[in-house]
Amino acid sequence: MVSATVGTGTALGALVVSLLAAPAQAAAPVGSVGAGPERVAAAALAAPDEAGLRAVLRKARAQGAPGAMARIDDAGTVHRLVEGVADRATGRTISTNDRFRVGSITKTFSAVVLLQLVDEGRLNLDKSVNTYLPGLLPDSRITVRHLLSHRSGLYDYTNDLFSRTVPGFEAVRNKVFGYRDLVALSLRKPRTNAPGAAYSYSNTNFVVAGLLIEKLTGHSVATEYQKRLFTPLNLTGTFYVHPATAIPGRHVNGYLRTGSAGGLLDSTKQTASWAQSAGAVISTPHDLDVFLSALLRGELMSPERLTQMKKWTRVNSTTSYGLGLRRRDLSCGISVYGHTGTVQGYYSYAFTTKDGRRSLTALANTSNNTTVLNTMYRTLEPAFCGKPVAEAATREVTPGATSPELYEDIAPGVVRD
User: Could you write out the DSSP letters of every residue in 35-86?
Assistant: First the structure.
């Protein structure tokens, strides 16, 4: 195994501090609308803590990830940290230039396209989905806004597809679904709540979002992503290749735990057809940093639409959800914005500050490993808050603090294997 660092900036030290070592915050009930004010730092951001961030990446490797990496763009100063390998067969060192499957970060791309259609007068967030897709859903009270905020109550079909991760993946690795096939899988089960009544994360919502994009534009999701986002932002490492199975160019291989001692299955080649507009984009750390920075700077939609995107529903004490966008509240008093991603073999985090001046993308090339998932969650603190203060660094972490969030991006209703 190889570790390396490439980047700019001052050499930094100190140990990483877990987000969860910070004092507990008062929180609205899970699923409540109105998540409180966004938290803004009183002073300029501290410099990123490279030593602390590297400690997180090394811990993820020790917990079973073949490789882990993070890229920070701090107003043009780029920090690149890598640990381990992109490909276990060749031993090639992972690189922040590598492409990978971003999983549910795709949801932010889909939400941006739909909000652009709102700006163009072609979509109303508060109209019934059935207005645009007649007869698709059994309840005409479900609006487009309900989809994008995960408050539709539509059951997440991935609970059934991936009740057992590896057999579920092998059953769909090369399968091609239509959008309506996936919606039909969801509608076999009762809805989780009445429309608008509660937050309940569901991939079904963003499958319907893909159907809306294609119906309203007359073009494929791939065409609209390319025309509206990939080309204007010069995201040359970002692709939507569904239903092709290969990642173009130099990329990170993904790995699933098989259940045998130390066993890993290479999951890189897959259609990702079970995810599509909910999770099938391929990108790079650079491109995700550019995309999220442009989004929060207001370059991708009107100010009114960006305000709507940031109308929050509280998920837990540190996380809120808008329209295809997550907000994370950090211990140093700032909020960051982006999304998490899970697709078989990849855990990813992509977040930026409110002004888009500092962005982080972090990746571990494994999944079905919640220990690694929650470790990677801790990349946010050293990236955005800098070195921990002495008190926080020595504070004892409370029991259960290693599980900061529900596992949502795939099969949120399933106990992980």
Answer: --PPP--SSPPPPP-HHHHHHHHHHHHHTT-SEEEEEEEETTEEEEEEEEEE
Residues 258-283 have pLDDT tens digits of 987 779 999 999 999 999 999 999 99
**Amino acid (one-letter) located at 195:** P
As given in the structure block, the two tokens for residue 297 are 């700077």
Contact 273, 242 (CB under 8 A): yes
pLDDT, position 417: 61
Catalytic residue check, 260: no
User: What 3-state class would DSSP assign to 252?
Assistant: coil
Distance from C-alpha of 337 to C-alpha of 349, rounded to nearest angstrom:
10
pTM: 0.90
Q: What is the mean pLDDT of residues 157-175?
A: 97
Whole-number Å distance between alpha carbons of 272 and 105 = 14
Q: What are phi and psi of 115, to 5 degrees?
A: -70, -30
Cα dist. 265→73, 84, 158, 160 in Å?
32, 17, 20, 21
Of 18, 104, 186, 293, which is the active-site residue? Answer: 104
